[in-house]
Design brief:
This protein is 18% helix and 29% strand. The chain is built from 8 helices and 41 strands.
């Protein structure tokens, strides 16, 4: 049976966010704050992981995909102590240590949780806090340590007075309690404060009054324990997380020309010797193999890019699989579950949608391929398009190996262009072109001598 459980308080109103979205569901680097908290705790093996919900409870539930997470409901928002108490039913049979934190403190590292637990066990504490030293601790409860033994905490001054105001060490709402000590303290917390709420911080003084030990671990950087209450702080926290991600990738062999303007989501994988130019955005479930060159100002979302692939300036690649040594762009758009096999070239202004391009195919200038399957070694001319939508449904186009589609050709789907065949420039093709044949569909060209002069005289 697990000796560790966790409670994440995610029931707050978040009024300062000025949002219809529950505060814990706002995102940093592609992940919700709540998911970042749960992910940082997960390596510790807490069982169960309890999330206390209130405002927007159903949205919060649906945002968590881990079936092991248990939800408890805080019926009224009566403070952090009341929220923690709401989790008791989910932990009725649990005996051990319980980590308690908030769903809007997303930057705590797993290593910090481990340090807290280590100190908790070393001290044999009933409760251990994580604290931070702030240049301006306004809004944080001050940590009042024992004058004779600074390892021990006496209480948290939520409303500091006198010399307490000068204390720079603040409480950050990250705790570890022995289960029986937590429940005992929660029964005694009162709401006799300015807000009329039950503060979890009061548990510290209650436990000390009973002769129990309360310890504290201070983080090295206060940015790790930022609590997010508004959009400005959300942006600050995202910058911190982005810096962590980029630093790790650079240590792993990725070149970033300007890390401050390179945006990589949590969980994105990038291989060594890849170069990311300014304005590159890598989102979602994206993997980039080694030796790629991406950017500047490129968006890649939910894609796999094979080794040696180049995505040039201004391009967007979404929900697609891209093979090795592919070239995309500049200003190209590859989207909606497309596949580009090795050494494909999709050039300036071209768009590929729900299509598969075979190895070595070239599609270099201002074309559109939608719902198309293109064989190996084909050539798609400038401005060529597949007319895949008939007003009711999408229709497929098949362009077989080695076919040559001329500039400004329009292929009316459903249609097949056979292997090794040619489609003449400017043709509108509505019937299949057999392998090795030439498909031509043009109006006859006419020349009217002297027409320009007659037009000028007519105007005058």
């Amino acid at each position: 049976m697990s000796q560790l459980a966790s409670i994440v308080l995610a029931a707050g109103l978040g009024t300062r966010m000025k949002s219809q979205i529950p505060k814990p569901l706002h995102r940093l680097c592609g992940q919700t704050m709540l998911n970042l908290v749960l992910s940082s705790l997960r390596p510790l093996g807490p069982d169960p992981q309890v999330v206390v919900v209130g405002q927007g409870a159903e949205q919060v539930r649906q945002s968590v995909s881990d079936p092991a997470v248990v939800f408890a409901v805080q019926e009224q928002q009566l403070g952090t102590g009341d929220a923690a108490k709401a989790a008791r039913g989910a932990l009725a049979e649990f005996e051990g240590d319980i980590v308690v934190t908030c769903g809007d403190i997303p930057l705590v590292r797993t290593e910090t949780w481990e340090r807290m637990l280590s100190e908790h066990h070393r001290q044999g504490a009933a409760c251990t806090l994580v604290t931070a030293a702030f240049q301006n601790p306004q809004g944080y409860g001050r940590i009042i340590r024992h004058p004779a033994d600074p390892d021990l905490v006496l209480r948290i001054a939520e409303e500091p007075r006198g010399e307490e105001v000068e204390i720079r060490e603040g409480n950050v709402s990250v705790y570890c309690f022995r289960a029986e000590a937590l429940w005992e303290a929660l029964e005694e917390i009162r709401d006799d404060n300015l807000k009329g709420e039950y503060y979890l911080t009061d548990a510290v003084e209650i436990l000390v009054s009973k002769g129990m030990k309360v310890a504290a671990v201070m983080v090295e950087e206060a940015t790790e324990v930022i609590g997010i209450n508004d959009r400005a702080t959300l942006a600050r926290a995202e910058a911190v997380l982005r810096s962590r991600i980029n630093h790790r990738l650079m240590l792993d062999g990725v070149t970033m020309v300007d890390p401050a303007t390179t945006y990589v989501d949590v969980g994105v994988e990038v291989g060594p010797d890849t170069i990311l130019y300014p304005g590159t955005i890598l989102r979602g479930e994206t993997t980039v193999a080694e030796g790629c060159v991406i950017g500047p100002h490129v968006v890649v979302e939910d894609c796999h890019l094979g080794a040696g692939t180049v995505v040039k300036a201004g391009s967007v690649v979404r929900e697609s699989v891209v093979g090795e040594r592919v070239q995309i762009g500049p200003n190209a758009h590859v989207r909606d579950h497309s596949t580009l096999e090795e050494q494909v070239r999709v050039g300036t202004g071209s768009e590929v949608c729900r299509s598969r391009l075979g190895a070595g195919t070239k599609d270099l200038h201002f074309s559109y391929l939608g719902d198309a399957t293109v064989g190996a070694g084909a050539n798609i001319g400038a401005g060529a398009i597949t007319c895949n939508y008939d007003g009711e449904k999408k229709n497929p186009t098949l362009i077989e190996d080695g076919a040559f589609v001329g500039s400004d050709a329009a292929l009316i789907a459903p249609v097949t262009i056979g292997a090794g065949s040619f489609v003449a420039a400017g043709s509108v093709i509505s019937k299949d072109v057999p392998p090795g044949a030439l498909g031509v569909s043009r109006a006859a060209q006419r020349i009217k001598e002297g027409w320009a002069e007659k037009r000028t005289k007519k105007k005058s």
